[in-house]
Amino acid sequence: MPEGDTVFLVARRFAKAMTGKTLLRGEFRVPQLATVDLSGREVLGVGTVGKHLFTRFSGDLTLHSHLLMDGMWDVYPAGAKWRRPGHHARVIFTAADVQVIGFRVHDLKLVATTKEHDLVAHLGPDLLDPKWTDEHRERAVANLTADPARELGLALLDQRVLAGVGNLYKCEIAFLLGVTPWTPVSEVDAGTTVALARKLLLANALAGRFDQSTTGHLDRNRKNWVYERTRQGCFRCGGKLLVRTQGHDVQRRPTWFCPKDQAGPYPAQ
């Protein structure tokens, strides 16, 4: 599933292409919205809250969407051939010089712009909120420490705690804190954890990097400390990494960690 910074960058690219333009075509290819036609509406902007994307139109109307595991909004010049199969297109927006296509986007809903908040009221503070304040940080810390016995990795992935962290950042945050993702939340400094999560997401979002780096390096084999480095080993010590599954059912995620550099519990297999 894309991390919050990826969704942020998708929204920024979408907004740059479409904001201020009038739709010549606004078509949906999903049953619940198949009869809706947005042609003639102006695109006022595109924003995000965590991993949720909101496209705002004239007439107090907003389209909510979520990328989940396989969704994407692609931008093309008008008339250009799509890079993805046409039968994966769920939304087609075209203006005079550009087209934006939603491929396999999920949770599509049209709501009044004034009611957007109702769709994300359950989320924790958005780590990429441009209006982030000490109040956001304090709420995120309170959410994180609400269940002290909870595994750190599971708490970080819970969008109700803080919005934007996915599996990559979960693994990397735990590494930088020096603990395994199975460590109870009570054994880490919650304020440091929230600050680190925001720092990592913000760095990649502001740099415009879809291919995230948590080490500061951009080379493919040097971008991350432990995430998906089974072959290369730990970026810090070079030692062998372990991979275990964390979570249950649809929340199950492969989780990389370094048993040398990270203290704490982890499953035997």
Write the layout of secondary structure elements.
Elements: H1 4-18, E1 25-28, E2 43-49, E3 52-57, E4 61-66, E5 72-77, E6 89-94, E7 98-103, E8 106-111, H2 117-120, H3 134-145, H4 152-157, H5 167-177, H6 190-207, E9 242-246, E10 253-257
Helix pairs in contact: 1-6, 3-6
Walk me through the structure.
The chain is α+β, with helices and mostly antiparallel strands. It is 25% helix and 21% strand. The protein has six helices and ten strands; from the N terminus they run H-E-E-E-E-E-E-E-E-H-H-H-H-H-E-E. The strands form three sheets. A four-stranded antiparallel beta sheet has the order 1-6-7-5, with helices on one face. Strands 2-3-4-8 form a four-stranded antiparallel beta sheet, with helices on one face. The chain has a two-stranded antiparallel ribbon with strand order 9-10. Strand 9 (242-246) and strand 10 form a beta hairpin. Helix 1 runs parallel beside helix 6 (190-207) and helix 3 (134-145) packs across helix 6. The longest helix has 18 residues, at 190-207.
